[in-house]
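3.2 Worked example (two chains)
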Amino acid sequence: MSADLLIRSVRVAGPGRELVPTHEPVDILVRAGIIADIAPAGGLRLTAETLDADGAWAVPGLWDHHVHTVQWALDAQRVPLGAATGAGHAARLIAVADPLPDGRLVGAGFRDGLWSTRPTRGLLDEATGERPAYLINADVHSVWLNSAALRREGFDGRDDDGMLREEDAFEISRRLNAADDATADAAVARAGRRAATRGVTGIVDFDMAWNAEAWRRRCAAGFDEHRVEFAFYREGLSRAVEEGLRTGDELPGTSGLVRVGPLKLITDGSLGTRTAACSHAYAGDPQNFGVLTIGPDELRQLLTRATGAGIEVAVHAIGDRAVASALEAFSATQARGTMEHAQLVRHVDLVRLVRLGVVASVQPAHAVDDRDLASELWHDQPAMGYPLASLFAAGAAVRFGSDAPVAPLDPWRTIAAAVHRTDDERAPWHPEERVSLDVALGASSRHGEARIVPGAVADLALCGADPHALDRQGLSTMPVVATVLGGRLTHRA
C-alpha cells in the first residue's frame, strides 16, 4: 500500500476527538488530501511520507473568516499607533517615523474614542509639516490626515478636523492599499507564511478591490500557503453576475485553493468612529445615533439580485439598528449568507437571526479590545453588546475571524478572547458571554464545521501543547509545530 502522508503519534484535541475511542496518540493517514484512516499509533504499517508528531495535539486547520488581505499584509510597513494616549501623542509618533519611499507618513491602529484631546488638522500639521501624513483608525472607518495629505488626495477646502469618515475613509484606504502588483503580492506571500505558523489553513478575503485576477496571479506565481474565499463589493456585483460567478465555485487557475466568496455590503459604521447605527444615542452625544450607509430598499434590491445569481451575501452590521435592518432584508429576500460583526444585538433579533439561517461571523478579540469604549459609549444601549455565548445558546451558526488588520490575524488570540473574555489581568468582560474551548475551536474551523474524521479534508494544525490544559496566556501564544494543508506541510517548526 502507498499513501500521501502518514502523521504518526498525534492526539486529536479538536472537533472529532469525541469519535476517537482513546486519549492515547493515534496515526492519521492522508490520501489525495483527504483523511483516509485514523488508527492507534503504530497500527498503520505503510510505505509513505511520514510526519512524526511526537504526541502533538491536532485540531482542524484554523480559518479566519474576516480578513482585509492586502491591508493586513501592508500593515507591517505602517507605524503602529495603538499605544497612542492622545491626539498629540499620535501626532508625535507619526512625525518621527520613517516615511515610505514616496514620502508619505502612514500609521495605523489609533483608538481616539477615549482620548481626552481630540484630533485636529492643525495639531497634525504642527507635528508633520508638509510631509503628507495618514493616520488610520484601528476600525478603518476613519482616517486622520494633515493638510498636505488632504491636498494630495483632493479632500482639501474643508474647515474640519482633518478626519475623513466612512466612504471617504475607505477611499483613502483603497488608495493607500493600491500598491503595485509585485509589492502587494510579496507582502501577501509573507503574511501567508506568517499565518501558516499559527495553524491557519484558510481565510475569507474582504479586500476592497476586485480580487479574482490578483489571486490567479498569486497562485500562478506559487502562492500555496492557505485556502481563500474572496469577496467582492457592490461595485463588482454586475461583473460577478456577468462572469457567472457563484459562491462556492472554484476559481479557475488557482489549483483549487481559491473559491468565490460572498457579496460584501457595509450597512453602517463602527463603534470607534461613532457611526455604528444604534437605536439609542451615543453617550455624551445625544444627536448621534450612527448612520445607515445602505438604506432598507437598496439593501433588499442588492440581496435580491445577488440571491438570484447564486451569490451569498456578507452584511456588515455593527449597531442594533443596522442588525435589524439587515435581518429585515434577509427575511424579505430569503438571501443566504453571514452577518458580519453583530456587535450590538437586540434580544429578539438573536431569535430572528437563527430562524432565518443567517450565520453570525464575529470577531471575539473585538470584545476585549473595545470593552472600555463600549462601556463608555454604549452604556445606555438596551441591546446586548458583543454577544457570543448567547448566539450559540440561541442555536446560531457562528464563525470566528479577526477583521485583520483591525485585530491581529492569529486564531489562537481569537480563541483565547472567546474563552476568557479578557486579554489582560482584568476580570472577564461580561463573563456570561464566554464559550468553551471546544466551541471556540469549532467556530475557528472552516465555516465552523470542520472535524478530524475519515473522509474530511486533511487541513490540520498540530499544537505543541494540549489546548485544554492551558490558561489564557498559554492559549493565545499556542506553539504550532506543524500546519498541514490538504496533506501538504505549509509550516513545520
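3.2.1 Second chain
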Amino acid sequence: MNNPVKKRIRVPVHGVLLLDKPVGLSSNDALIKAKRLFNAQKAGHTGTLDPFATGLLPLCFGEATKFSQDLLEADKTYQTIVHLGISTTTGDTEGEVIETSSVSISEQQIQHVLEQFRGDIQQVPPMYSALKRDGKPLYEYARAGITLEREARAVSIHLLELISYEAPFLTLNVRCSKGTYIRVLGEDIGKALGCGAHLQALRRTHVGHLVLEKSITLDVLMEMHEASRFSLLAPVDALLSSFPKIELGDELAKRFLQGQRLALGKEDIIVPANIGRVRVYRQADQQLLGSAQLQEYAILAPERLISTSSDV
C-alpha cells in the first residue's frame, strides 16, 4: 500500500522581497515560485509585469500584504526599447506582425514627438490587458479576435527621456503614474512618428521608492540555503518608509490597535506638521502597529493594523 504524500505545512512569513522577474514568466507564476521557496502561508505581488517584461517585482509576505495597495498606487520607472517600423497585435514581441514600414527618422523628429507625451496625457488601454469587461479580461476577447471599444484614461508621464537612438531602435527611460501602459506609449510614439512601433524590451527599475539594484533573481534564490533566504526580506514597514513616523505610548498604542481614533496632544507625542498618511509604532519596542491618516486637529485615524502577535 502506497504511503500518502504529506502536505507541506506553510509557515507565517512577514516581509518584502524585491524580485528581479525574468522574461517569459508571469507575475503570478513568479509569486508562486517565491512563495514555495519561503514555504509562506500568505503572499501577494504589487502590480503585474507582462511575461515579456523583466525587472522589479516587489513581493509581499504575511502582514506586508496589508500594505501592497500602496505600491499599486505608486509611480513606476521603466527602461524600454521601442522597435520602430513594425506594429504587432500585442504591442510587444509576443504578438504577430500586422504592419511594417521603412524608418527614416531623425533624432530631432523623435525629440519633438516625445515632447507631446510628457505630462498628463490620455491613453486607451490595450485589448491585450487584464482589464475586465463583463467579468472577462480583455485579452480573452482579443484572443477570440474581438475588439471592444475602450475609453481613454488619464495618465501622467513624469519623465520621458531619450537614452539612445540607433534606427530602428529607440531606448527610453520612462517614469509614469499608475495605470500607464508602456506598450501603448511605444505604439503611440510610433504612430506619431508615422512608422508604427512595438516594444522590443521592457524592464522596470523603480516602484515608488524601491529600486531594482536591491533585487534578487529566482535562480539565485533557489540556490540559497532555505534559512539564508529570510535574510533577504525587508521588514514590513519597508513599504511605508516614505510616510512620516508617529510613536505612541503603551496606552495609546493599545487603543490604536483596537481601531480607535485618537486625539493626540503635544504632551503625548511629537505630531508631524503636515496632515496625511503616517506609519505608527509603539514607542517602547518600536513595534510597527500599522498605518493611519493624521487629520486636522491632530486626530489619528487608524487605517491598516498589524497583528502584533506576529513576528513582523
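3.3 Remarks
The CA atoms of residues 38 and 227 lie 9 Å apart.
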